[in-house]
Structure of ITB1 protein:
Amino acid sequence: CTGNGICKCRMCECFPNFTGSACDCSLDTFPCMASNGQICNGRGTCECGTCNCTDPKFQGPTCEMCQTCLGVCAEHKDCVQCRAFDKGEKKETCSQECMHFNMTRVESRDKLPQPGQPDPLSHCKEKDVDDCWFYFTYSVNSNGEANVHVVE
């Protein structure tokens, strides 16, 4: 019973918060909680502690990644700018507001992660406070960790 129940007469009797023939389905919705406090970002259902995204545009562990939506790049632009280049609107509040992703610097645009990897990936081209372009990628892995790769 995968450690989540007791076997009685070759049938699993599941502990509270577990279901399924082998008690392998968690009823806990915490892993499905999106950053906005909604289950699966309001764009999917939580099944066995995993989001099943019902809106095909959205993917990722909590249905928050949208490759075709405007906004992923703009939403993280200020934080990437202050973390990578120590400038921009959030320069003064960077350490409080912008520590929600892991950041990796790369030498050039061809060193950025490319589409086709298992994690949803957004390629971003944004202007900084000095009116210069900067490039980064934003992805979320299966553990819900956000990863940014930024061109130096």
